[in-house]
Amino acid sequence: MENVEKKKKTGMYDNVLKQFNHAADIMKLDKGIRKILGSTNSEISVHFPVKMDDGRIEVFNGYRVQHNNALGPYKGGLRFHPTVDITAARALAIWMTWKSALAGLPYGGGKGGVSIDPSKYSEAELERITRRFTYSLGENIGPDVDIPAPDVNTNPQIMAWIADTFASTKSPSTRMLNLHVVTGKPVGSGGLKGRDRATGYGVVASIKSWAKLKGIDLSGKRFIVQGFGNVGYWASYFMEELGAKLIAVQDASGTIFNENGLDTEKLHNHVGNNKGMIAGYPESVKIENSEFFALDCDVIIPAALGNQITEANAHLIKAKLIAEGANGPTDVEGEKILLERGVDIIPDILCNAGGVTGSYYEWLQNKRSEDYHIDTVLRMISEKLEQAFERTVNSANKYDTDWRTGAYIAALERIEQTYRERGVFP
C-alpha cells in the first residue's frame, strides 16, 4: 500500500511537470523564466513533538512548499492526511501558482500539511498538533508572506487555531494585524460569509460557463460526484438548484446509486451522522466502485483526491463533461483518451479556483476591516471565474489546443509578463 501511495504522489508531480512543459513548449515560454517556474522557491520540512492525552509524546512530520511568489504572497491549503509529504505538497503548490495567476489574483502558490490521520486523534490533540505545527513554521508564513487555507481534513476551527497561535507570537500592538495569516476562518473570527461553499460554488459557476458556451440547459441533466466532503456537497447543492439530478456518489466507504436521483440535503445529513461517510444511505443501492465512472450521466465532478481518472477507466466514461473539483483527478494518459473521445474537461486550476478566490476576498476583507455580504461574495466569485473561463477558452482557441493547456498558457503569460517587466535580481 505504501508503494502504491508513493507512486500516486510521484505520478501527480510528474503530471504537473508534463502539463507545465507541454504548455511552455506551445507558447514558447522564455527559457530563463521556464527554469524559474520549473522549480520551487522553498521547501520546508518540520518535525515537532506533541503530548498526547495519555501523556505520551509523539513526533509529527509537517511540510510547507512555496513554489513562486512573483505575483504576491504564497497561497494554498494545509491538509491533514497520511499521504502528505514533500512530493505531494510540491505538486499541489505548483498548481496553486497557476490557479491564482489564471484567476487574476495577487498570489503565488504554496501547499503543505501534516502527515496524520486526524480521525485517530481527539480534538484536544488536534488542537495541540495544529498549534505546534504553526509555531514550527514560524516566520515562513504570514499575512503578506504565505497565507494557508483549509484543505483535505482541515476546517475553519483548525484555521482559527493557526491564526490565534501565529498572532500570539507577535507583540500585543500588532496582534490584530496578523489574524489574516490564514483564510477559511470561522465568520466570528474574521472569516468570510460564503467561504465554506466557495469551492463547490466555483465548480458550478464553471459548469454554467461551459453550458452557456455549448448552448446546454443544465436542468434535468444527470451528474455524479466523487467525494462528498465540502466541495462535493456544495457542488451537488448548487447543481440541484439548477435542476440537475445527482444519481451517484462515491467516497472511501463505497459507491451509492439511485436512478431517480439522490437528495443532496438528506445525503449530507446522513454523512454528518455517519462519520463523514456515505455508506448505508437508505435511499440508494450500493454498486461496485469500478462501475462509478462508467455510469450513464452528463457531468462527472471528481471532488476527492488526485489520479482517479486514468487510462484504465477513461474509455468507460459516458459523460460529456469532467468538471475537476479536486486537484489533479485526471492523469495525462487518461486525459488523452478523453480528448480523443470528445469529452470536455474543465481543468482543476480553473474549475476549483472558487476556493482561493473566496480566500482572496476574506484576506481583502480582513486587510480593509470590512464585512462582505454573502450575496456580494458569491457574485464576486462568479465574476472572477467567468473571466478565468473566458481567458482559458480564448487561449485554447489562440493556440489551437485543449482547455487545460489553454488555462496553463493564460496563467504562464501573466507570470512571464511580470518577470519581463521587473527583471530578475540582481
Automatic annotation (TrEMBL):
It comes from the Bacteria. Residues 192-423 form the Glutamate/phenylalanine/leucine/valine/L-tryptophan dehydrogenase C-terminal domain. Gene3D superfamilies: Leucine Dehydrogenase, chain A, domain 1 (3.40.50.10860), NAD(P)-binding Rossmann-like Domain (3.40.50.720). The keyword Nucleotide-binding applies. GO terms for molecular function: glutamate dehydrogenase (NAD+) activity; nucleotide binding. GO terms for biological process: L-glutamate catabolic process. The keyword Nucleotide-binding applies. Belongs to the Glu/Leu/Phe/Val dehydrogenases family. The record marks 151 as: Important for catalysis. NAD(+) binds at residues 199, 230. Substrate binds at residues 75, 99, 359. Keywords: NAD, Nucleotide-binding, Oxidoreductase. This is Glutamate dehydrogenase. The active site is at 111 (proton donor).
